[in-house]
Design a protein that fits this description.
The complex is a heterodimer of chains A (about 110) and B (about 120).
Chain A: E1 4-7, E2 10-14, E3 19-25, E4 31-37, E5 43-50, E6 55-58, E7 61-66, E8 71-76, E9 85-92, E10 101-103, E11 107-112
Parallel strand pairs in A: 2-11
Antiparallel strand pairs in A: 1-3, 3-8, 4-5, 4-9, 6-7, 7-8, 9-10, 9-11
Chain B: E1 5-7, E2 10-13, E3 19-24, E4 31-37, E5 44-50, E6 53-57, E7 64-68, E8 74-78, E9 87-94, E10 107-108, E11 112-116
Parallel strand pairs in B: 2-11
Antiparallel strand pairs in B: 1-3, 3-8, 4-5, 4-9, 5-6, 7-8, 9-10, 9-11
Classes of the chains: A mainly beta (about 110), B mainly beta (about 120).
Chain lengths: ~110, ~120
C-alpha cells in the first residue's frame, strides 16, 4: 500500500491564486519531501520537512507537517502559469537514513493565465 | 551545481531485447536509488546501493539487475524486455554517511524514457 496519499488528484486555479495540496502517510517518518514534475520530465526536489518541524518556508512555498495526524500540506502562494506541474509528496519507508521513498499519487496542478 | 546524470535520455527497444541504463550520482554522494515510473503513475522504488553494496530492494523483476561501481556510478540492466517495461526510469542519489538528517534529500536525475515495442 502507498506510504503517501495525496489530495486533490487535480487542481485548477487562476494565476495569482494560492494552491494547497495535501498528503497523508501511514508510518512514522523522520522527514517528508515534496517534489515537482513537469509532464514526462524529471523530479525536482522542492522542500524537505523534518519530523520535529511543524512548518517550513521556501520562497512561495509553505509546507506544514502534523505528525499526530500523519499529514502534510504544500501551499504555493501567488501561483504562476509556470507552476503548472504534478506535485508529489514522498516519505521514507523507514526512519533510518538511506531509506527508499514511497510517493503519493501526486496532484496535477494547472495554473491558468 | 552538479546534478545526477542519466544516460541515455531516451531508449527504444524491441521485446525480448536487453537494455542498460546508466546513472552518475552527484559527486560525493554515496547512495544511489533506482525508481520506475509508468505512465500516469507515481515513481516506484526498484533498488538502491550504499557504498557499492545493495542496500534495499523493492519491486524489481528478476529480469533486472543493477550494480554500483567503484566510481559510484550505477547501471540498471534489463533483459527479456516486455511491453510493460516501458516507463521512465529515474536514478536518485543522496549522501547518507552517518545519521545526519540533513543528508536525507534524494536528488533525482532527468530520467531515461524506455519504450519497448
Amino acid at each position: 500500500s502507498q506510504q503517501g496519499e495525496e489530495d486533490p488528484q487535480a487542481l485548477s486555479i487562476q494565476e495569482g491564486e494560492n494552491a494547497t495540496m495535501n498528503c497523508s502517510y501511514k508510518t512514522s517518518i523522520n522527514n517528508l519531501q515534496w517534489y515537482r514534475q513537469n509532464s514526462g520530465r524529471g523530479l525536482v526536489h522542492l522542500i524537505l520537512i523534518r519530523s520535529n518541524e511543524r512548518e517550513k518556508h521556501s520562497g512561495r512555498l509553505r509546507v506544514t507537517l502534523d505528525t499526530s495526524k500523519k499529514s502534510s500540506s504544500l501551499l504555493i502562494t501567488a501561483s504562476r502559469a509556470a507552476d503548472t506541474a504534478s506535485y508529489f509528496c514522498a516519505a521514507p519507508l523507514r526512519e533510518t537514513s538511506g531509506s527508499r521513498l514511497t510517493f503519493g499519487e501526486g496532484t496535477q496542478l494547472t495554473v491558468n493565465p | 551545481a552538479a546534478g545526477v546524470i542519466q544516460s541515455p535520455r531516451h531508449l527504444i527497444k524491441e521485446k525480448r531485447e536487453t537494455a542498460t541504463l546508466k546513472c552518475y550520482p552527484i559527486p560525493r554522494h554515496d547512495t544511489v536509488y533506482w525508481y520506475q515510473q509508468g505512465p500516469g503513475q507515481d515513481p516506484q522504488f526498484l533498488i538502491s546501493f550504499y557504498e557499492k553494496m545493495q542496500s534495499d530492494k523493492g519491486s524489481i523483476p528478476d529480469r533486472f539487475s543493477a550494480q554500483q561501481f567503484s566510481d559510484y556510478h550505477s547501471e540498471l540492466n534489463m533483459s527479456s524486455l516486455e511491453l510493460g517495461d516501458s516507463a521512465l526510469y529515474f536514478c536518485a542519489s543522496s549522501f547518507e554517511l552517518g545519521t545526519t538528517s540533513a543528508t536525507d534529500t534524494q536528488y533525482f536525475g532527468p530520467g531515461t524514457r524506455l519504450t519497448v515495442l
